[in-house]
Design a protein that fits this description.
The chain is α/β, with parallel strands linked by helices. It has 19 helices and 15 strands. β5 and β6 (143-152) form a beta hairpin. α18 packs across α19. The protein binds adenosine-5'-diphosphate and magnesium ion. Adenosine-5'-diphosphate is lined by residues 207-209, 235, 237-243, 346, 391, 424-425, 428.
Length: 508
Amino acid sequence: MTTNLTAMQSGSGLPAPATLPAEQLQALYDIAQVLNTISDIDSLLERIMDIAIQTVTAERGFLVLTDPSNEKEISVRTARNIAPEAALSKEEISRSIVLGAIESQQGVLTIDAQTDPRFAGAESVIFNQIHAVMSVPFILRGRIVGAIYLDSRNRREGFTNESLTFLKAFSNLCAIAIDNARLMGNLRDENYQLRTEVQRTYQFKEIIGNSKKMQDIFDLLTKIINSDISVMLEGESGTGKELVARALHYNGARRDKPFIAQFCGNLSETLLESELFGHKRGAFTGAVSDKKGLIEIADGGSFFLDEVADIPPSVQAKLLRVLQDGEFRRVGDTEVRKVDVRIISATNKPLAKEVESGNFREDLYYRLNVISIRMPSLRERDGDLPLLVQHFLAKHSKDVEGKQRRILPEAMKIIERYHWPGNVRELENAIERAIVLAGDRDITPDELIIPRVSKPMTGAKSLKDHEREFVLKTLEDYSGNKTKTASALGVSLRWLHYKLAEWKGPEA
Ligand SMILES: Nc1ncnc2c1ncn2[C@@H]1O[C@H](COP(=O)(O)OP(=O)(O)O)[C@@H](O)[C@H]1O
Ligand SMILES: [Mg+2]
């Protein structure tokens, strides 16, 4: 009887056969190519499994990875023709073989398990008629990353010493690729977070406002800060909806978990769906590898859905499931995954109207809208303008060298007269630009590039009166500079001279 249990020490022990068959060398070459192009860990493991099974013609197999923070903790990540839950169960011989390979840091090969005294009486060997067994650990810089297990019941196509040599070379490549993919995965997750969380220390003090409307909002935010209740923010663009969403997250119980924002307007259904929920490789053209969805990445944290009114129906249905059961599936996948996120949403269209017209699901609307906060436009926020101007002067003076910039009263007058359709965002942009244009000087009307549209004027006046008042005000804003006034009004200098002459009367 021959006993063919061979153990090969990495880098020492038995000399490896000098050459590998051409097809195995080719396989190694192919693998190296493939492994370098996959950065998603799940798809990488699938590929590793397929290539290994094919090249050594194994029947069953599975892959385990160690927990990066605890090498002793291993879990099955993918399997072929063997149930992942069974692979490491006590009854299966595969368990002791894989654990043996990991513990000894050696590859293990058994050419005939049926006659191998090591497995005598092992029920799973007999029951599964296992013939040849092979397992090799993935080792990188002395650390165990995981291991591969393969077996076969076919007596004619069993494993050989060459198979083991091949699998060892293969495993070295796998260890590097797995390490890379893990690193890329971490970077990708971090990157998503960085993209949306410019500042980790959001507090209400970042939200400027003394007006009654803003004080009411602060009161409400304080009440809901530590609950998981869904919050809907309604308001015009630039009123601070996203700022409030971040403040809710970074002041609340979930502050140490991710805050992820997704803009939902003008996105194709497929793109939005795969961004939010991820996809399985091959789910659609271009889905070259498995991808985690942002909802998954936000697990434990908060998810900000910006412009919810634009979400297409199929995505609405998936979101409802997340809100109701905390469940979702990646696009093209059958596996149901669990997730725990607080949903904060925003819209600048009245969502109730979208529900009425049938564009937005009513059930989802009520789930999202447990608490709704209406962000007032800047025009409604009495007294907040000077505060905001000072806030942005201080904030953006820091970006450029030199002293804290001030704003001259004439410039402030222009700001107060304008109606700010773009709200706080537009104001902030105007101040930031003015600081740059002013250099190290204080800000005058010259640096304020805002459309010269006055607040609507009251009282019955003729169109001619309005025209005159408007032109003269603009002239005043530009300290009598006619060239600048004409270009701000979008008229020719000649037209302006003509009008001024007309209003002054013939004697001028
Ligand atoms: N009350 C506020 N205090 C300070 N900055 C604000 C305030 N409201 C809005 N901003 C700033 O204005 C810009 C636009 O706000 P954002 O939250 O993106 O608006 P929205 O999401 O409603 O379009 C951001 O730079 C934000 O920091
Ligand atoms: Mg926004």
